[in-house]
Structures are given as structure tokens and as C-alpha cells.
Amino acid sequence: KLIALNANNGSEIWSAAISEDARFVLSADAPIEPIMLVADTSGSIARFNAANGDIRWSVPTGDCRVCLLAFTSPGSFVYSSRQAVTRIDSSTGAQVWSTSLPQTDTQGSTLYWHEFGGLANNRFLGVYGAKTVGIHARFQPVDFASGTLLPELLSPSMDYGAMGMSAADGDDVFDVAQGATESVDPIRLRRADASTGVMAWENVETVLPAPLADLGYRQDSKGAMLAVGTDEVATATAWSRPGAVSFGSFELGQVSVHERATGAQRWSVVLGDSVQGMTDISSPAFDSFGNVFVTMTAYRPCGFVGEYCGFQALYKLAGDTGNILWHLDSGDYSPYTPPFPQIHTLPFEVFNDDIVIRDQFPGASHAMARFSGIDGARVWSTDVFSGGSSGLYFYRQDAGHVIASAQGQSARVDLLTGATLWTASFVEPACQQSCYQYAQLMLANGDRLLVGEGDSKPRILREHNDGSGTLESWTLEPNDPQLRSVASFVGTTPSGNVKIVMSRIDRKTPGAISILAGFDPVTGSLNSQQVITLRPIDATSESLGKYLLEFPAEDRMLFFSRDIGETTAYSSGSGLLDTTITAHGDFTLAITADTDPVQIGQTVGFQIVATYNGDQAINGAKLNVGTHVRQGGLSNLGCSTQSASNCVLDDRSGNVHASFDIQPGGSIEINGQMRIVENRADDYFGGVVAGPTSLSEPDTLNNFSRVKIVRSLFTDGFD
Predict the structure, then answer these.
(1) Are 66 and 105 within one domain?
(2) Cα–Cα distance, 548 to 263 (Å, whole number)
(3) Of 470, 425, 477, 420, nearest to 445 (Cα)?
(4) Are 542 and 630 in the same domain?
(5) Structure pTM?
(6) Any domain includes 153
(7) Which strands form 348-351's sheet, in the order they lie side by side?
(8) Nearest to residue 147, comparing CAs of 85, 79, 89?
(9) Dist. CA 33–CA 51, nearest whole Å
(10) Do 227 and 342 share a structural domain?
């Protein structure tokens, strides 16, 4: 319903039944009234009489499922179907003009129209871009009087990065990332010394194999995969090109192998068919001779026109040439019409140069099989469980065994013979809302640790892989319901100590940190917490994310890094973090604010106090405080200190960033005002404080604080 309320007492004046797909703007001419656009297959635009709810006029738009409300101006309403932009007379509903919009660029990439607005000097702008990551945003001026598309405005061209990955092997760390520029999508691969970061070599592939270059393929947003062998390094990527197909674009896979010693490319091959789409390709894997295994999933045309079938494929590629030695194809699954569910690649393990994988290939009679690396023939196949193995998955336990799971059961399987050595049932404790597992660790005795979250709290499971079915579950207390706390990575140091990387994220403000925590897998308790990253809250805050690769030494963490810079462009790489503890202490943050009702244009005063108690002085502590809601900047910002120094403030982004040094028992106090430009009932101002990674804290919950900004209920009758 659309409901009109009396602004003085809240009583209902009138109501009107409307579509659930209705969207509204207010007219810019008197009297101010709601204009409704119904965004469905038979769309329409209507203007309501504000006094009684009668419809002044209504006009059809045709299919308007993806229509954009653009803006109103005195006497006019502008909207876009993304195929065209249209201006109508807001007093009568009559069309003034309608202009078709270009749908592809000169390279054939599909264009996406995002927004229209900014009316000034008798013109407004359309913002659009291509799906391809490397194409920058564009601005299309439109003449307001006639609807004529004016010459395009040039916008800054910038390079974008896609997600990559890193892998540690011996004394080396390898990084791969797929970048993008206006004309080329390079694959960047490098090798560096894991202890110093000194780069041994870097290879940048800018020339695509002929099938990709000839048909205009560009990088896919899935990023690049990586595997490291004894003498070679392999990468796997997916590439896409626009196509008038239901899944939006055609996609192929590419696998390349480089010399480990020099980085020189040995070969590069393209896998798949030019009519397939929604392609997913796995990380490659080597056998002992340097040959490469890789799996791929995709959809391809099948059945009737407009139907597509998913399929799985397994390839073995020659290590010296890239030639396909053999190839298994699952055949077409049941036909689909849009929307298409994503088909994920099949996980596999290499054993004695053979492949162990879920068996979905022709002739399959069991759930899991070992295929000969020589010719792809089955060596053995098994259902693992006598009662059925629907939804089977497995993971490597040790050199000769996997643990397989299906339908609440687990089993240990001998990779040499396929024999099931034992079966057990693990009963996982239920969560009230949701449970997720993000990473696993095999302990020395063959047990598995699973780290993740349960009901927004860090949750750890330990599966005792001895056939007993014993499952231990821990929620890492204490926790705060105002925070979402997640265990995302786990590893062991050379001495066998278990370390977990956790995140704590404020539900109402941008405050978030990543933590390195010691964990006892016997008692399920944390024994230290070190902040390794203050998560970015805007373009001026620290933006380097650190994701655990391994612990090469007791006091070093090798990490995969992802930097989200000021242009929100990814930059991937790796780094080594010193995790030596030199101080023990505790930070506490407290934030207060004026509670008097305020209206748009007024200011709210606030106070931020950070205190520290510990056994050593701290240099380089940091504080981030802000809000998710737009506000009009900070004023009268100042920092006073007690047993602290070097308090440096940065409010360029409209949020509060501070760095400072502090003695045990010291504190800093930041005072200021925030101008309100948006009125919401549920707006909080808050954040987090943290010391350097060398500080060990018993808890990080009190590093957070937030305060609700109390505002007036209404600014005017339409707010």
C-alpha cells in the first residue's frame, strides 16, 4: 500500500493498493506529489493526488523490469528502461522524448547503464560501463530539452586487478593475479624468496592464445588459480566474451605452465568449446613427471533451442607440450533454462600419478573412483558406504588415505585399493541460525580441525578420525552480540602450535579487525589475541588484507595479501608478518554523543576515549571510527592526551582516523562534531582501536564501541 499520514498526529488520510514492484519519487513541481513507477513486465507510471490519493494520470511503459528512476525537475520526470532514456511531462504524463541507448561498445562488450542524474546547464549524465573488468566507467551527457546524446565525456582510465592467489613451497612464495587495462588483460606471475620478499623473477603474459585473442575474450572476474611443482608452475584462468545467450557470455578455460627456475612460459592451451558459458576451472595439479591435471565445469547448448546442459570435464595435459593426453567428459546433465545454478568443479587428489575423484563420467557405477594417469581407465571404484553415497565429498588425510563423507557418515578410504577401512557417524551440533566452515587443518594424529562461525560466533570443530565418531565443538567465548566474529584460517607453527586468524566485525558501524589467536586443540580455548589488520572503512584507511598461507617460523606469518586501494581496485600479492610478542596489555574504547534530537543540517557532538593498560609502552596504535550513513563532514576535531603522545588525526574521508603512542595507564580523548545530512532511524557512530601486532591482548571485544545517533522522527511530512 501507499499510505498518506497526517504529519501532525500520524493518522491515516488515505491509502492506495500498489504493486510490490512499485518505486517512488516526489514531483519537483507544486503540489509535491508521489510519482510511481511499476517495474515489472507490464510497467506503468502514475502520479497520485496528494490530497486524496486519486490517480491524476497513468501511462504504460511496456516491459520495465530493470527500469531506473532517474530524477524529477519542475514539470518533468526522467526514467530509463536501460534500453532507452525517456522524459515525460509530470503534469500530464505525456512523453516529451525518448532516446535509445547503445547496448554494446566497439569491442562488442555488453554495456550496463547504472544511473542518470546531475541535471545542470540543460543537460544530465548517464553513467555506464561494460561487464569486462578492464573497461572504465563512462559518462554520457544527454541534452535535457531534446534527449540528444551529446559527445561522451572522458573519464580517467585506470588499471583494475582481479582476485589472484599465492602459494608457498619450500623457501619460495609464488603469486598470480589477473589484471586488466583498456586493451589487454595480463596474467602476472612471480616468484619471491619467502623470508625476504626479494623477487627472483616476474612474468607478465600480455598475448593471449589465438582462440582467445581472435574472438575477443577478456578476463573473467573469477581470477587466476595456481599450482607449484618441482620444476614448473601452472596457472589456470577463465576468459569470457559477450554473447546473446541466456547465461550472458561465452567462457573458456586456459592453462599455462612456466619454468620454476626462470618463469619462462613453457606452453599455454585453451580448453573448452566456443559455445560454452558459466565456466569454472579448478586449480591445476602435477603428477611426478610434471604432467598437469585440471577439471572444468560449464554449460553448453543441448536439447531444444534455449536449453543448456551442464557438464564436468577432467583433463590430463602433457607437461612438456600441453597436449591433451586424455580427457573425460561427464556428458550432458539434465537441460536447464534460466536461471542456471553454478556447477562447481570436482575436487580431486593425485595418488601415485593417478587421479581420485567423484565418479561422474561414462560407465560410472559407484560414487568415487581412481583413474589411471596413463590412459584414464578406472583402477577401482567404490560407493564407500553401503547405504548410499549421495553428495559424497572427501579430503586428504595423509599420503595414502582420504576421509570421505556423505549423508552424515564419514569413512577412511585406502587410496591404493579403494577399501573402506572404517565408517563412523559424526553428529554436528546444530546452530540456531546458521553454521559455516571456512578452513581446515589436519593435525599430526590425523584428526581434522574445521574453523568457521556458528550464529555469528567463532566456532571450531574437531573430528577424531579414528573411527570412533567423536566430534568436539567449541564456540570461542567470550562474544558480543553487537559483533560478528568469524574464524577464517588455521595453521600450525613449526613447533606444532595451532594459530587461528579471526575477524571481528561491528554489525552497525564500519569498525572491523583481523586477529591472530593462539588455540589449544585439546581444551578449545584461545590463549592470545594479536591484531594483524584494522579493516578498511574508507579510501584513506589501511586497506591491506592478510590471509594466512603458512607459518615458516614460530614468530612469522606468511600471508596472501589483497589491497583495495582508493579506486576500489584489487592488488594481490604476498608478505611476511613479524608476530613476535613484545608487550601484553589491553585497549578499551568508549564513544559517547549528544542525544538531543537533531534535524538535517544540524550537528551532533561526540567524544572518543581510548585507554591502554599493559606492561610496555605502545608505539603506533591506531583508531578508526565512522558511520555507514552519509554525513556532512567533521568539524572542531581535537585530540588531548594523558600519558600519550604523537596523536595524529585524519578526517579527510569524513570518518575519524588517529594514530598515537601511549604509555601503560594512558589515554587519548578525541572531541568533535558531525554534520547530519541524512535522516535514518537506525544510525550508529562507532569503530575500533588497536595496538601493533606485537601487542598480545587477553580479549579484543572491548576494543570496539559505538553510540546511536538519536534524531527527530520527521523533518517534514514526506521525510
Answers:
(1) yes
(2) 25
(3) 470
(4) no
(5) 0.78
(6) no
(7) 348-351, 354-358, 368-371, 378-382
(8) 85
(9) 9
(10) yes
Q: Taking Cα atoms as reference points, which of 340, 357, 361 lies closest to residue 349?
A: 357
How far, in Å, CA of 650 to CA of 61, rounded?
49
CA distance 374 to 377: 8
Q: pLDDT at position 719, please? A: 39
Query: The CATH number of the domain where 595 resides is what?
Result: 2.60.40.740
Place of cell 522522527: 713
Could you tell me how far CA 234 lies from the centroid of its own chain? Answer: 25
Looking at residue 214, the DSSP 8-state letter turns out to be H
Which structural domain, as residue segments, surrounds residue 306? Answer: 158-346
Distance CA 411, CA 388 (A): 13
Q: Are residues 107 and 41 in the same domain?
A: yes
CATH number of domain containing 295? 2.40.128.630
**538 and 646 assigned to the same domain:** no
192 occurs within a structural domain: yes
Query: How many Å apart are CA 489 and CA 481, to the nearest integer?
Result: 22
Nearest to 316 by CA among 342, 287, 336: 287
Are 202 and 253 part of one and the same domain? Answer: yes
Among 143, 168, 186, identify where a domain stops. Answer: 143
**Same-domain status, 231 and 339:** yes
Total Cβ atoms within 10 A of residue 432:
7
Tell me which of 346, 363, 390 is where a domain ends: 346
- Within this chain, do residues 183 and 277 fall inside the same structural domain, yes or no? yes
Q: What is the pLDDT of residue 596?
A: 73
Q: Count of residues for the chain?
A: 719
What SS3 class is residue 325?
strand
C-alpha distances (whole Å) from 125 to each of 152, 170, 278 are 10, 54, 33
Neighbours of 601 (CB within 10 A): 10
Give dist(CA 404, CA 342) in Å, integer: 23
Answer whether residue 696 is part of any domain: yes
Helix (H, G, I), strand (E, B) or coil at 444: coil
Query: Which CA distances in Å does 316 have to 12, 270, 497?
Result: 70, 13, 38
> What span, in angstroms and rounded, lies between the C-alpha atoms of 129 and 146?
24
Domain assignment of residue 356, yes or no = no
Grid cell, residue 513, equals 579487525
Cell triple for residue 107? 569491442
Residue 706 identity (one-letter amino acid): R
Tell me how far apart the alpha carbons of residues 249 and 271 are, in angstroms, rounded to a whole number: 16
Outline where DSSP puts E strands in 32-102: 34-38, 43-48, 55-62, 68-73, 76-80, 84-89, 95-100
- State the Cα–Cα distance between residues 497 and 443, nearest whole angstrom: 10
* C-alpha to C-alpha distance for 452 and 490, rounded to whole angstroms: 10
pLDDT of residue 323: 97
Q: Report d(CA 148, CA 138) in Å as an integer.
A: 17
Q: What is the mean pLDDT of each run of 10 residues along the chain (719 residues)?
A: 91 91 87 89 91 94 86 92 94 96 79 87 88 62 96 65 81 85 73 94 81 71 85 92 66 93 95 88 96 95 84 96 96 81 89 95 91 97 81 92 89 96 90 92 95 95 94 92 95 96 92 95 94 82 82 95 60 90 97 80 90 97 84 86 96 90 98 77 85 96 90 47
Euclidean distance between CA atoms 107 and 105, whole angstroms:
5
Number of independent structural domains in the chain: 4
Distance, in Å, from the CA atom of 350 to the CA atom of 291, rounded to the nearest integer, reads 11
Residue 458 maps to which CATH number? 2.120.10.10
Interatomic CA distance for residues 175 and 549, integer angstroms: 12
Task: Tell me the HSE value of 276 on the side-chain side, using a 13 A CA sphere.
Answer: 24
List all residues 6 or more positions away from 394 whose beta carbon is below 8 Å from its beta carbon.
347, 349, 356, 358, 368, 402, 403, 404, 405, 413
